[in-house]
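Worked example 2:
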Amino acid sequence: MDIKEKREKEKEMLGLMVQVYCRGKHRQKKGLCPQCEELRDYAWVRTDKCPFMETKTFCSACKVHCYAPKMQEKVREVMRYAGPRMLWYHPWAAIKHIKVTIQNKRKEKRNSHVS
């Protein structure tokens, strides 16, 4: 997968999670409320500018956080809420996300034993 495609996939997943959050927390039936739209757009800009896209998995696993602290906490809140619900709303996206997370944890574990 090339970097551009990886960026788009990450933005798509984040957009889906913000939708789930907005629907559940703000009762937004279609689209996003202004707060959630602002958060999504902010995260997309950060994803577009990420210099580590080639090697990183997810922002939560990155050693450098480029989000402002307030926005970082808001994204964590969205992830905590939407993560468990993704299986119901977007099962294939959730399964792929879980698969990549498990693969990366195994890779990190192998690398930490080698060092």
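Residues 3-114 form one domain. The chain has one domain: 3-114.
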